[in-house]
Design a protein that fits this description.
elongated, Immunoglobulin-like, 8-stranded parallel beta barrel, 14 helices, 6-stranded antiparallel beta sheet, 617 residues, alpha/beta, single chain
Length: 617
């Protein structure tokens, strides 16, 4: 951690606390301290001429405090570790050394084995707390999940929010359980062998309860983002702003034992005037701290840019991140099974583009894309499979639909299984969205709990504008209504129902196949070949393992049957079918493909949305 910029309070060896804040645009700053059982105390902080103000005082964990920069009234600490009364109230001291960890030597599995599971702490269970979510972690471990990805937990206004309106990035939202709630969640996850990934928002602050601009130049007018003012990463005083955000990750790695970070919308991190991009600096700091503690820490970028530089090593001119989102596979599979072509789906729906996404991770590597009106993406043939994180559902692609529909409510069950099989057996890192594993059909909608009526109306209008690009008709659910939020909570009785139970079994067996067959466990796109058979709607994906084992995935993505000789679909050799989506145990009408196949002139009849996995015998 860069000690030049020590954001946040610190407990000293003698038990006192040092309060510090960066406020370069004011001449003075006062500390307001409310110690339990004592009268409020206020005093001037010492300025060092470097924009920093400091004061060491007697205090106890739980004591509340605030700063008054210049002539302003009290403001919460921009690097507060706890906001017990919400984002508009005072901050509180947290003694991070007081938590009794039970699992202290956890090291995550190799990145090749990571299977992400994205969840919203408020909607994953009916209680909507991290403690309740922790009770479900044994289910996730048994399913085959290896990394739990939490949507943002930073303190936000109100009691319900997706988390991307956070204004206190060092905090944990109090209604979810606060600091100890997250620590207990991580501790339990590590006991079960699960890594924990925290979603970090560095590209913007939420519109309500954001007081950082009262202290310093956290924003710049040089750029704009879809969410308002851009964060100052390359202008005057940007050294401190960059350090502030880098320290948020180090803070959660150090005090909460978090194993990795999903970096929200990195394409909105505007940093063009400095020789080293913010992400490269972040990567250097986070990976360096991981080496220091003997545990690799992972950084995963959320982006739609198809930019291979994000995951190239810094030594080769890249940003040094571990993986990046690849929208192409989602768009390709969604478009082909739903038939949707509006918005960002307009450039997808063909077998050839789907094959490219399965084979390379990117379907667009510099070709013209109608949605963007320009060339999109760049080739990355040197990237390993771990450089791509892929998905069929995320909070964005479900929640940013007019009605929040999930894939299983849009297509027949067999189509959903075919898409699921191709996605899960691709040579990349898969990411689930909560409930997807059993085929959840309840919507996931956008929700907020702002207190400003004007802001709420602006949110409603913004949602309408966004939906107009997709030509969806009707009035979207009110984001501020409690009922909108309650609709999004998972129903944990659903997996016991027949249809959901069968899809869950299918998911479980696909994950097992991914682990058990070397041809699938090796995440190497260079050893993956995908052949489209148009106009039949059939895709064949061949993958190879280090030990010579080969696997072939056969999928019919059409609603019409197709007939082939085995030699057209399977390479010469002896093949054994390990699973077929149409089996009764997966809720299908019954298998139709042979159990053993020589790849010769046998006839293979593929019903609509057929899916099967063959491995070399």
């Amino acid at each position: 951690m860069d000690q030049r910029f020590p954001f946040g309070p610190a407990k000293e060896a003698d038990g006192r606390w040092t309060f510090r804040v960066w406020a370069p645009r004011v001449k003075n700053c006062r500390l307001i301290l409310r110690r339990e059982g004592q009268a409020e105390w206020t005093g001037p902080m010492e300025g060092g001429g470097d924009g920093w103000f400091r004061l060491t005082a007697e205090a106890q964990p739980g004591d509340e405090y605030a700063f008054a920069p210049g002539r302003l009234d009290e403001r919460p600490d921009p690097a507060s570790h706890r906001q017990p009364g919400g984002v508009h109230g005072p901050s509180a001291l947290v003694d991070h050394e007081a938590f009794a960890w039970t699992e202290t030597g956890f090291v995550p599995p190799p990145l090749e084995e990571w299977v992400f599971y994205e969840l919203h702490a408020g909607c994953f269970t009916q209680r909507g707390t991290l403690a309740a979510a922790a009770e479900k972690l044994d289910y996730l471990a048994d399913l085959g999940i290896t990394a739990v990805q939490l949507m943002p937990l930073s303190a936000f206004p109100g009691k319900r929010n997706w988390g991307y309106d956070g204004v206190q990035p060092f905090c944990v939202q109090e209604t979810y359980g606060g600091p100890n709630g997250l620590k207990a969640f991580v501790d339990r996850a590590h006991e079960l062998g699960l890594a924990v990934v925290l979603d970090m928002v560095h590209n913007h602050f939420g519109p309500e309860g954001c007081y950082v601009a009262d202290f310093g130049p956290f924003f710049t007018s040089a750029y704009r983002t879809p969410w308002g003012k851009a964060v100052n990463l390359d202008g005057a005083d940007s050294d401190e702003v960059r350090a502030y955000f880098i320290q948020t990750c180090l803070h959660f790695a150090r005090h909460y034992h978090v194993d990795g970070f999903r970096l929200d919308a990195v394409h909105a991190l505007h940093d063009h005037m400095r020789p080293a991009h913010f992400l490269a600096d972040l990567s250097e700091a986070v990976h360096g701290y991981g080496r220091e503690i003997g545990k690799p820490l992972r950084l995963i970028a959320e982006t739609h840019a198809n930019d291979p530089a994000l995951t190239r090593p810094r030594s080769r001119g890249g940003r040094g991140l571990d993986s990046a989102y690849s929208d192409d596979l989602h768009h390709a599979l969604h478009a082909i099974v739903t038939g949707e072509r509006q918005g960002y789906y307009q450039d997808y729906g063909s077998l050839s583009r789907t094959a490219l996404a399965l084979e390379r991770g990117f379907a667009f590597t510099g070709q013209h894309a109608g949605y963007y009106g320009r060339a999109h993406g760049a080739a990355g043939p040197d990237l390993p499979g771990t450089a791509h994180t892929v998905y069929l559902q995320t909070h964005d692609f479900v929640g940013n639909r007019l009605r929040g529909e999930r894939l299983h409510s849009l297509v027949p069950a067999e189509a959903a299984k075919a898409a699921t099989g191709l996605w899960l057996l691709s040579p990349f890192l898969p990411l689930f969205f909560m409930g997807q594993e059993w085929g959840e059909e309840k919507p996931f909608l956008y929700f907020v709990d702002h207190t400003d009526p004007g802001l709420l109306e602006a949110v409603r209008k913004g949602r309408r504008r966004e939906f107009s690009r997709f030509k969806w008709h009707g009035e979207p659910p009110d984001p501020s209504a409690l009922g909108t939020y309650l609709q999004c909570k998972l129903d944990w009785q659903a997996p016991a129902e027949m249809g959901y139970r069968c899809h869950l079994r299918f998911t479980r067996e696909l994950l097992a196949a991914r682990r058990e067959h070397s041809a699938l466990a090796r995440l190497e796109p260079r050893h993956t070949r995908v052949t489209p058979f148009a106009p039949d709607g059939v895709l064949v994906m061949e993958r190879g393992g280090d030990d010579g084992q080969k696997a072939v995935v056969v999928a019919n993505l059409s609603d019409a049957a197709a007939r082939f000789t085995a030699s057209r679909l399977l390479p010469p050799g002896s093949w054994r079918k390990t699973l077929e989506a149409a089996e009764e145990r997966f809720g299908g009408p019954g298998p139709s493909l042979p159990l053993e196949c020589l790849g010769g002139e046998e006839r293979l009849d593929l019903p609509p949305y057929a899916f099967a996995l063959y491995v070399s015998a």
